Amino acid sequence: MRLAAGLLFLFLLADVPEPRIVYFTNVRDVAVTQADRQNFFAVDPELWAHSRGDLGDLRLYAGDISVQYSLSEERAGTSSEDTEAKILNLGSVGGHTEFDLDTQALPEYDRIKLRLDAHDFVVKASVWGGDEPRATRVELPSSTLYDFTKEQLGSNSTVKLPTASFRYLHVQLSPGIAPEQVKGASISNLRERKASWTRAGECGTPQQKGRRTEIACRIPPRVPLNRILFRVDAQQVNFRRYVTIEDSKSQQLAGGEISRVRVNRAGTLVNDEQLALDLNLANADTSGMTVVIDNGDNPPLAVNSVEPLSLERRVYFDPQGKTALKLYYGDEKLSAPIYDYARFFHVDASAAEAKLGAGEHNSQYTGRPDERPWSDKHPAVLWAAMIVAVLALTAIALRGLRTKS
After folding, report:
1. Global model pTM greater than 0.70
2. How many domains does the chain have?
3. Residues 124 and 211 in one domain
């Protein structure tokens, strides 16, 4: 049984196409800026246009020696420890709801999330920290909490703080929230890493068609589209619009909302905006897409520009002292590499950016040998042989009939 499994593994392994420089259609020079450390370069439209869709046919070479690499998506990252905080001394002082939070369960934190049974409010949350519930406290930055259910402009019940480790927090809410409306609280330590984006094409000038604002966009072939960024005139505030992405046949590919809130209630300013639409269009045709903003019965948005963006992909590698490498790509039959470097990869904070040269046709390219069966290579000969065989069988059958007659 083991022998059979081993033979099957060897057969499958032998069937995996091997990379060879003569099998790649394209090549680019890679200039290493600092050869003594980790380097990287970003995937650009040239690579998307002439590589496999999953970029699995990228190969780095130093002469004839393969250089291992790791392909990384520069996504936004968050890691968060989230735990319930015990509410103490909840009550009202001079019209202000006040309470203490016991943060013993989490050594460090930078967020307080309140569960409030309230709608249509704007309040200021002031926070102090200390190691005893009623000891001298350190004042921390305040936050504005709001709920605009009536206006359909969203809500926020999170207090943002610099990273703190006080055992107790004292929270005071400005008038607008009663003590009985405070249902609970949690604290968290949020660590964020911003995503990196690259331009994924171009969008034209907005055109008004009734209640719709339409923006035609052109996305190069194979370039993934992960985000649409809207730039709306700063003077236009307090709006919320539904946005759809349509393909060249007016079929909807995706949808979402953009908004900007700037409200002053009783001296408390709420300022928040969401002008980016994140997308997941893995296999959609976005080459002739249109961005559509539904204005409803409201005036059209003053859209200055619409920018299609792609999540940046980077190729990280260790040049091992080499200052010049070559990047080969354009082999559809090649499988994605399996490197130990990628398995144990981590981003070096001091990684240097390598420079990519222009894409060129590989002068050594010969193409892979034709590995199809003989019958697939010579279908005409096969059909001719089959026709001859049918004719021969027909002649034999006719001769047999005549003999019987």
Report:
1. no
2. 4
3. no
